[in-house]
Structure formats: C-alpha cells, structure tokens
Amino acid sequence: MVDERFVPPEWLGKPILRAEDLAPVLQMHVDDVYRMAKHGSIPSYKLGGRRLFRTQAIVEWLAGAQVEKAA
Q: Residues 10-19: contacts with CB within 8 Å, 24+ apart?
C-alpha cells in the first residue's frame, strides 16, 4: 500500500508511472531518469519497448534514499 503522505498528488491513483512523471519530482531531465533506470539505480521494468515504474516501488525507493541521506 502506498503511503499517500509521501506521494506527489499527481501520482495518486496511478499504479504505473512513466519517466515523464518522475522527472519533475526527482528534479532531473527525463533522459537522466531513463539512464538511471537502465543502470538499475531506479526500480523499473520494461513492457514491450517502454520503461515503466511502479508507484509503490518508487515511493519505497525514495523513502530508502531519504533514510540513507539522513544517516
């Protein structure tokens, strides 16, 4: 279950995200999101030729990144 306190409002109700959804929240260019996903730095999966992101996995990944940053 996604903790809605940590989810940007535009992500609510979207189980799957695109790089274009992530880029503004991560404050990076869409190409950088794709590059990080390709290298396994961001959790993602490919469906056909598209790279997609599960909202739950991204929220957990962001929470983990914040914990590491605080340590």
A: 11/55, 14/55, 15/54, 15/55, 15/56, 16/52, 16/53, 16/54, 16/55, 17/52, 17/53, 17/54, 17/55, 17/58, 18/50, 18/52, 18/53, 19/51, 19/53
